[in-house]
Amino acid sequence: xxxxxxxxxxxxxxxxxxxxxxxxxxxxxxxxxxxxxxxxxxxxxxxxxxxxxxxxxxxxxxxxxxxxxxxxxxxxxxxxxxxxxxxxxxxxxxxxxxxxxxxxxxxxxxxxxxxxxxxxxxxxxxxxxxxxxxxxxxxxxxxxxxxxxxxxxxxxxxxxxxxxxxxxxxxxxxxxxxxxxxxxxxxxxxxxxxxxxxxxxxxxxxxxxxxxxxxxxxxxxxxxxxxxxxxxxxxxxxxxxxxxxxxxxxxxxxxxxxxxxxxxxxxxxxxxxxxxxxxxxxxxxxxxxxxxxxxxxxxxxxxxxxxxxxxxxxxxxxxxxxxxxxxxxxxxxxxxxxxxxxxxxxxxxxxxxxxxxxxxxxxxxxxxxxxxxxxxxxxxxxxxxxxxxxxxxxxxxxxxxxxxxxxxxxxxxxxxxxxxxxxxxxxxxxxxxxxxxxxxxxxxxxxxxxxxxxxxxxxxxxxxxxxxxxxxxxxxxxxxxxxxxxxxxxxxxxxxxxxxxxxxxxxxxxxxxxxxxxxxxxxxxxxxxxxx
Length: 532
What we know:
Blueprint: H1 3-27, E1 39-44, E2 49-53, E3 61-67, E4 76-80, E5 84-87, E6 95-104, E7 107-108, E8 115-118, E9 130-135, E10 138-143, E11 151-157, E12 172-173, E13 177-178, E14 186-190, E15 205-212, E16 222-223, E17 227-229, E18 241-249, H2 263-277, E19 281-285, H3 302-309, E20 314-315, E21 330-333, E22 338-346, E23 362-369, E24 376-383, H4 392-413, E25 420-425, H5 439-445, E26 448-450, E27 457-458, E28 486-491, E29 498-502, E30 522-529
Parallel strand pairs: 18-19, 24-25, 27-29
Antiparallel strand pairs: 1-2, 2-5, 3-4, 3-6, 6-7, 6-8, 9-10, 10-14, 11-12, 11-13, 11-15, 15-16, 15-17, 18-30, 19-21, 20-21, 22-23, 23-24, 25-28, 26-28, 29-30
């Protein structure tokens, strides 16, 4: 063999050796080390997960699998880049098994030692938060998870505090539902006419959440705090004719409590209060008695005296009412804005404070807009007397009959179905509990809408009846739900722009009035009457 040939063979052999030596380390690359130190670090009951930690393998990612079977049949798996993973969702109280392995350069290491996982139950804890807000047709209640709860249910009612008497309504209660699905804790509660909580009634919905654990059945139910919200009000028609309507029980002359001012003093302040609010229409009730405050020396009636004091308003009817009952129920209107088309008295509305068949005087008027003569509407002033019965339930039923009588008489007059605004003192609120046959509910079922279900509500945390107490002594309801026996209701129009309980009245100049002029507060509503 020649020297040149021998040298070539050596070169080839050396090159092959170099190739083998370069490839050999790659072929010899091993799987990553087995994961060690796997253990349970913590758990999240609300998310139904357990945090699994282990010692890191340098440069590796990880794959964890878990199952209720030690053979890992039907196992679930999850990848992670850090030396930890959140395993779940798990069923509370059930035993699971987990293993983890490292992955590096496409090679998987051996699985770790098996770790036992259990989502451990405990006694149901306190709710972290609870709140409520308006929703269409009801409210939405939202809450933070109660530790270790497996189920929740929501209770709701028309009144606060299930332990409180007599302001107690039997709550509606949902079925129990899973505390884990969905994780976001919220439920909508739809208002119910059977509880006077649907939107037109203008009442709030009181709600709370209950939690329980089915894993620890001996644990008692856990109640959240009670929260309250009003259903989202109906939006008024923005194109409608704006009308500011006021209703005021001015307290009849001679009806004053001992030690309080008489009409000659009160009348001036009453007029200041009304004028400061500048209503377009006023429904005044109890505007009766002698305006000089001396029954032995009869002068003109209070409603006539009030007419003389209200320069921007005009009495619709100055003649005596047909019945001796409630002469002071009267209507006033702004003659610069409206034309009085017709007027009269609704008949057949009983005065149940008397043993005979006296009717209570209930004036009505049809008004026409001067700026838009095609737009007409009815206004009504009503005052239902407290029936002479010791039974609260029977009293409420009789007041409901008054409303039914009013509806019948009004429908007979309003044959063209014009919009209606009704104001007055019904001597009825939504208690006693569970009674839905009273004055306001009967009118709502008859097609009326309570204007306190308004876009803007002011002063409604006070009662409309002030018992002749100064503003500083009128109690604020802790839920913002002051009771009302004075109302402004509408028919044939949508919602209201604002509703105000004028519990702290001022003069037009913004100064406090010199005295509390009546045992009721003036209430107002800004409304939108549909145009024709």
